[in-house]
Design goal:
The protein is α+β, with helices and mostly antiparallel strands and about 600 residues long. Helices cover about 25% and strands about 25% of the residues. It contains 18 helices and 30 strands. Helix 2 crosses helix 18, helix 6 crosses helix 9 and helix 8 runs antiparallel to helix 9. The longest helix is centred in the last third of the chain and has 15 residues. The chain is globular, with a radius of gyration of 25 Å. It starts with 5 loop residues before the first helix and ends in a 12-residue tail after the last helix. About 50% of the residues are buried.
Length: about 600
């Protein structure tokens, strides 16, 4: 359905039973987020908060809380956009079947942005402090905008078609920000806005920034789409929403989305930063306080019937998990088409997305040899690590398609089993040291700094993975062995102290295990809580890959270095204990949770839902 506004979408969802109203007054400090989390965990509906304490504006969340609801929102346009994406990958499809793709021309027309100067008259003004001051987690540094669409233009190529629309978090208050005059703009590496700010800085110019909140649901989705460089998010928003992106420029030259509910305009000056954070993030930990660009607020506009849109970010799965699933529905094979030989790629949501990536590629370099080994898939892995946001991946596991045509990167346990049954740790572990990692990942040795590893597997199965715990002779300091998924052993150990002490501990473990029968356990994970880590696959990948830095925390039984290549003749060991430099994990406030409980009582808004 082509929604003209967020209010129209809210009304449609309510009409079809996909949204409920919270009629009680709610506190934006922790309580609204806790309500959202509880409803999301119960696979509940979208939520319209009618009375937000301290703000005249209602707020909506959980719009995209399930893939089913997301597909309902875009029920009329999704097939057309999928067809457009397919045409971009293979234009010959249109020539072979012109009648099937005839509707794509209409989608292309709606993709063209439309300038509408007359829309200036429908906006009112407010202040930052009047917006819902939503704080998600107890240690957050202040209220944040969690569903923003941050718009910037290229100073060398101004205009909507060369602009960037991205979802970068915005801190509205707290820290050293001057209330109503300054806000924080946090963006990670490999983001389009960074290119725009670099150009503005080099020219000594302030960067104009417009932050849109709300509007048709196609707009926030466009802001998170991994679009190819040079393709405008505004055109995608128009095609997906079947409504041209409408905009105008205000009297100060800022671009205004005519369909947005709120617009914050401001400028970012070269080299002006202030501390931003902490903030509970999608890895399941807090991103800590760091200097990020300072945005000086010019104006805050809103529509008369404006609804504030927000979400809650935390350990997956969360609402952004459904975002990811919808993006996969839309793009299908778009990314594999851009990397020759790549068949499938999956940034694993349960591990916080960027820490762990699974990929499948073709292995065709030496088909004439009987013994196959990773060759082409290593080339593909290098392509992956040089591709846009895929380059943030920390652990890349890549398998050969020819070994199992039915292999699925979304089957986490099955994919790991396939890899562990075939990998040769003497040759198939490849490190990238002193490189960039995700800004939000604190497992490395500094902000944006750490290491990566590619683990590749091609050829016949080398071992049978065991499904029962073996009898083990563990040295002092290691205990409570647990079987996680097939072939994966989790050991508990005393808390991490230092790298030097860990090296000594691993040496003792290596000595104790090297002569024991661990052939069916190619992977050993060391954790602070073995039972929690081994409880399910989601826990396993979250603990293992968010709490380890490959170059620092990977060890091996009977390890060696030959010509600067590291390998091991026995099991691979990953030390996934918490380290002193790691960020704290997200923990709910028990008092707030009890307040949320009361909303589930008979007669309250969430009765029968939580």
């Amino acid at each position: 359905m082509a929604y003209k506004s967020l209010a129209e979408c809210v009304s449609d969802l309510e009409k079809h039973g996909h949204l409920i109203r919270i009629k009680e007054e709610v506190d934006p400090h922790l309580e609204m987020a806790a309500i959202h989390l509880r409803v999301f965990e119960n696979k509940g509906p979208a939520l319209l908060f009618e009375k937000v304490k301290g703000s005249p504006f209602p707020a909506v969340s959980n719009l995209f809380g399930t893939l089913e609801r997301s597909k309902f929102i875009f029920r009329d346009t999704l097939p057309k956009v999928q067809a457009l994406v397919g045409l971009r990958n293979d234009p010959m499809k249109a020539l072979k079947n012109p009648f099937k793709y005839a509707g794509s021309a209409l989608s292309a027309l709606s993709a063209l942005p439309l300038r509408t100067p007359s829309a200036k008259n429908k906006f009112l003004k407010t202040s930052i402090s009047q917006l819902p001051q939503i704080v998600n987690w107890p240690m957050d540094g202040g209220p944040f905008v969690t569903m923003p669409q941050v718009y910037t233009e290229d100073i060398d190529k101004p205009g909507v078609l060369n602009a960037n629309l991205g979802m970068y978090r915005i801190q509205l208050a707290g820290n050293d920000y001057v209330q109503d005059k300054e806000i924080g703009l946090h963006y990670q590496i490999h983001r389009g806005i960074g290119v725009h700010q670099s150009k503005a800085n080099a020219a000594g110019q302030p960067l104009k920034v417009s932050i849109f909140v709300g509007g048709p649901p196609s707009h926030p989705l466009a802001a998170v789409m991994p679009l190819p460089e040079g393709l405008s998010e505004m055109t995608f928003a128009g095609a997906l929403g079947d409504r041209r992106f409408r905009y105008f420029y205000d009297d100060e030259g800022f671009c205004i989305s005519a369909d947005a509910d709120f617009i914050i305009t401001g400028t970012v000056y070269p080299n002006e930063n202030k501390p931003e954070g902490p903030f509970g993030d999608h890895l399941g930990y807090y991103s800590l306080t760091h200097p990020f660009p300072l945005m000086k607020v010019h104006n805050v506009y809103h529509k008369p019937d404006a609804i504030w849109s927000f979400t809650v970010v935390g350990r997956p799965p969360q609402e952004d998990t459904s975002f990811g699933a919808l993006i996969h529905e839309i793009t299908g094979s778009a990314i594999p088409q851009e990397i020759h030989g790549l068949k499938e790629v999956h940034a694993v949501d349960a591990a916080g997305v960027h820490p762990l990536l699974f990929a499948i590629g073709s292995e065709r370099y030496t088909p004439y040899l009987k013994e196959r080994r990773p060759q082409e898939i290593l080339t593909i892995a290098n392509h992956i690590l040089g591709k846009n946001q895929l380059s943030l991946a920390k652990y890349v596991f890549i398998a050969a398609k020819e070994d199992n045509p039915e292999l699925d990167t979304h089957d986490i346990a099955g994919f790991l089993s396939h890899m562990l049954a075939r990998v040769d740790f003497t040759r198939d572990v490849h490190f990238y040291t002193n490189t960039t990692i995700d800004t939000l990942d604190y497992s490395g040795d500094g902000l944006n700094s750490g290491s990566k590893v590619v683990i590749a597997a091609a050829g016949e199965q080398k071992r049978v993975l065991r499904t029962e715990l073996p009898p083990l002779n563990l040295p002092d300091g290691f205990y409570n062995p647990q079987l996680a998924d097939k072939g994966i052993l989790v050991l508990e150990s005393s808390p991490f102290v230092s790298e030097e002490k860990t090296a000594a501990e691993i040496a003792i473990l290596n000595l104790a295990l090297k002569d024991q029968d661990l052939g069916g356990f190619p992977l050993i994970v060391i954790a602070d809580d073995a039972e929690f880590t081994a409880l399910n696959t989601d826990n396993l990948v979250w603990i293992t890959f968010t709490r380890s830095n490959p170059a620092n925390d990977i060890y091996g039984i009977n390890d060696f270095i030959v010509n600067k290549h590291w390998g091991c003749k026995g099991s691979l060991i990953i030390d996934a204990r918490k380290k002193p430099h790691h960020a704290p994990e997200l923990i709910k406030d028990l008092e707030i949770e009890q307040r949320v409980d009361s909303l589930g009582y008979e007669g309250s808004s969430l009765f029968g839902i939580i």
